[in-house]
Structures are given as C-alpha cells and as structure tokens.
Amino acid sequence: MADGSGFDPGKSEIADADLAPQGHRAIEWAREHSPVVDGFLRQRLTDGALEGRTIAVVVHLEAKTALLATVLADAGANVVAAGSNPHSTRDDIAAALVDRGIEVHSTRESGYPAWEKHLLAVADAEPELIIDDGAELTLRMAKYRPDAYAALAGVTEQTTTGVLRLQRLADSGNLPFAAMAANNAACKHLFDNRYGTGQSTLQAMLDLTNMLMAGKVVVIIGYGWVGRGIATYVRALGGRPMVVEVDPVKGLEAQMDGHVVAPIGDALPHADFVITATGGMRAVTTRHFGLLKDGVILANAGHHDLEVDVAALGAAADDVTEVRAGIDRYHLPSTASGTGTDRKRVDVLANGALVNIAGGLGHPIEIMDLSFAVQGVGCHELARGGYETGIHVISPELDAEIAAAKLADGGVTLDQLDDDQHDEISEFIDETP
Ligand SMILES: NC(=O)c1ccc[n+]([C@@H]2O[C@H](COP(=O)([O-])OP(=O)(O)OC[C@H]3O[C@@H](n4cnc5c(N)ncnc54)[C@H](O)[C@@H]3O)[C@@H](O)[C@H]2O)c1
After folding, report:
1. Mean pLDDT value across residues 97-122
2. Quick one: which H or E segment has residue 252?
C-alpha cells in the first residue's frame, strides 16, 4: 500500500519471499524473550504519536530488529527497513517483514554497491524518523538526498561510532534536527556494548572455529565498553587477554582489571586470537602483518569492516582460500610475513565484519530487548517533539523505567530509601529560592 509519502512495501527488494515462515518463527522466539520491547515499549507507543509516521529502521536485519520494526508498525508507523551492514541481513527475516507489511530493501551477501543502493531506496521512502546504526542512513541522506535529509524530524542512533559521526555532522553545522544518542543511555552501552558484545563475540568466534579458548592469548585492541566486555568473557573461558590501548585512562583501567597492557608491536607476536574493538580504522594493517604468528585468527567486533585491514591483507597475500564457512585464510609470502622464510597463514573471521553479527547470531535477545527499548523510546520522544536541534540522550527517568521494566519481568524488586536514610545536607544548605 502506497500512501503518497514514498513508503510502499510493494517496492521491497529481498532475496526470497518464500523464506517468510522461517523468519516469522525466529521473530516469535525473539518476542517471547523481549518483555521490555513487547510490553513496556509497546504500551508506551499506544498514544498515537507514531500513527502514519514513516520510520526507517536501518539496523542489522535479524529477528530482534524485526520485532522492533513490528512493534513500531503495530503502533501505526509506516516502517521501511534495510540492514546496517552488507553481510549481516537474514533473508528469512527480511521476507517475514515484507509479509508483515513492512518495506524492506536488503539481501544477505549483496556486497557494498547493492547495500548502498538499498540504503538510498530507504531514503527515497522519505522517512521522517530514522532508527540508525553507525549513522549509515543518516550520512548517506546528508550527502545524496539533501532535501529529504533537511526534512527529517529526528534520528536515534545505536552505536558509539554512529554517535561520533552525528557529533561530526553537528560540529560542521550540518545536523538540522534533534538526534537521540541511544548508545549513551545507560540501558544501552552498559549492557549491550559490554555483556552483549562480550558474550556474542566469543560465542561467534568459538562456533566459527570450533576451537578452545582456555590457555589462548587474545590480543584485544581497544578497551572501551566493548573491549572491556570481551576481555571479561575471554578470561571467564580461561583465555589470557592482552590489551592494546592509546588512551592512558583506559589503559590503566585494563591494567587494574588484571590484564596485561602492551603496545601493539609487543602484543601481536603472542596472539593466538586478535580482536579489534576500536571504532576506528586499520587497527591491524600492513605494518603489523610481519608481527603476527603463523595460524593467528583475526576477528573484528567494532563497527567498521575496516578495523582489520582485509583489503591490505588481500594485497599482501599470494593466495586466499575459504578454509571453513566464515573463515578466509590469507597466505602471506615470506616478504610480507616480515620475519623468517616461511609463508604464513592468517585466518580472518566473517570477512572482518562484526564477527558477532556477521558470523554469529548477534547479541543475546535479552540485551537487544534493552537496546531496542532505548531506541524505541527515543524515537517516540522525537515523534512527540519538543527537542531542540542537536544531540540528546533519553532522560535518566526513562532509562530507569526501562531498567525497572526489565527487573520486574525477572521478578526482581528493589529497596527504597526510608526517610531517615537521606543525606541531611538540607541542615547545612538553605535551598529556598
Ligand atoms: N559488535 C557489536 O555488536 C558492537 C556493539 C556495540 C558497539 N560496537 C562498536 O564497537 C566499537 C567500540 O565501541 P566502544 O563502545 O567500546 O567504544 P569506545 O570509544 O568506548 O572504545 C574504543 C576504545 O578504542 C581505543 N582505540 C581507538 N583506536 C585504537 C587503536 N588503533 N589502538 C588501540 N586502541 C584504540 C580508544 O582509546 C577507546 O578506548 C564501536 O565501533 C562501536 O560502534 C559494536
């Protein structure tokens, strides 16, 4: 049904509509384990604020994202969706969404040119609001669809990288709407970046390789919330984390958390696994290849597919073979290996894309229940209006409501301060205006 806004589910581009039943089952499983999105958020959206609004959802297109899209559509929104990475879409989920009346432009393994085309197709639906990941749609609308960009009512952003990108737009005077930094809400980064990415990154790496973590040296590049979570799970499984950082405070934190901290040149020669989590580019690139052990396994948990410089590895290799599903082996000749005379094998997981999403099932459902509650609440706030141009975070009260909803579903109740437990500071400060 087209409504004149550019939104039209009939224009969807997906791999195979027949996969819909499988997709519906996966979404139903996610729904059963998402009490905050399916309960708290769904209830909050019943005020009609989303009725008839066109909302773009550009997040890794899998079952949890599909649940969020469905809840928005059930609240009356016209939802148009694409994946936020060319390698992470699940074709059965895309099919199920189209079956639910959502416009989808996404196919797995479509490659970069097709992915870009799909994002612009979403832009052409003229969304008023965007739920974005890595600011992938927002940036493209700013560059290629300036009129539609200028007409946006708001954007909510999932990731650390995306919030930094929105900040760059704002700093250059090119953010003409209110944006919600979902990543900066407590119920997002404290749980998603740390526990969610920590568990799912290790889970994906071990599933892809069928290897043991105990006793392995794992070099973690970047010790933000993501690196911290990964290190926790490496250690929990008996691995030995080594941390590479550029920020002294984060480096000190890693040291006090009990990890070995070292510059990349000292750390890489020990690594059985290397995991990048910087949010930047080329954390492992040409000048590092000579430091890697034969048989090392490289994986990326940060937003960019470019943290592990796969293109440079390809250029340095004299042969690349897929040795197992999701594992490409780069054979480096002795010249590129830097030391010794033997050729060296370097295995890269999931093409260097986010390993937990492109090479695994993504974050645990309970984690995305929190992250998407934050995104949904942020989108609803923007739809209701009243926010000035610039970057905002949902209020601490809304953050607390989301946490309380999660705790309540788990049957957990908290204490409340009694009257005699408050700080008696009022005895010292006259607060009458
Ligand atoms: N895989 C996932 O599911 C997932 C989930 C959440 C966030 N992310 C992404 O993971 C990345 C990291 O997120 P975060 O919240 O930890 O960010 P963060 O900014 O808190 O931490 C990144 C850290 O990397 C360090 N760093 C940057 N470049 C470096 C380099 N070349 N060498 C060593 N250290 C370097 C920085 O000093 C910083 O401490 C972002 O791209 C984010 O979008 C991925």
Report:
1. 94
2. helix 248-256
225: Cβ below 6 Å to ligand 1? yes
Out of 158, 167, 278, mutate this one to test ligand 1's pocket (max ligand atoms within 8 Å of CB): namely 278
Ligand 1 pocket: which of 193, 285, 288, 371 to mutate (most atoms within 8 A of CB): 193
pLDDT, mean over the chain: 94
Same domain assignment for residues 391 and 280: no
Q: What spacing in Å lies between the alpha carbon of 209 and ligand 1's midpoint? A: 24
For the segment 186-223, what is each residue's pLDDT rounded down to a tens digit?
Answer: 999 999 999 999 999 999 999 999 999 999 999 999 99
Q: How far apart are CA 378 and CA 156, in angstroms?
A: 6
Q: What is the pTM of this model?
A: 0.90
From the CA of 160, how far away is ligand 1's center (Å)?
Answer: 7
pLDDT tens track for 377-412: 999 999 999 999 999 999 999 999 999 999 999 999
CATH of the domain at 289: 3.40.50.720
Residues 122, 162 share a domain: yes
From the CB of 302, is ligand 1 less than 6 Å away? Answer: yes
Q: Which among 48, 44, 51, 54 is positioned nearest to 6, based on CA atoms?
A: 54
Tokens 């993504």, residue located: 362
Q: Interior CA angle at 317 toward 313 and 319, to 5°?
A: 130
Number of domains in the chain: 2
Mean pLDDT along residues 219-248: 98
Residue 2 binned pLDDT confidence (cut-offs 50, 70, 90)? very low
**Both 136 and 264 in a single domain?**
no
* C-alpha of residue 388 to centroid of ligand 1, in Å: 28
Structural domain of residue 140, as residue ranges?
Answer: 9-188+363-409
Could you give the CA distance from residue 64 to residue 35 in angstroms, rounded to a whole number?
12
CA of 297 to the centre of ligand 1 (A): 19
Residue 341 has pLDDT above 90, yes or no: no
Can you tell me the distance from the alpha carbon of 295 to that of 269, in angstroms, rounded to the nearest whole number? 11
Q: Are 319 and 384 members of one domain? A: no
pLDDT at 65 over 50: yes
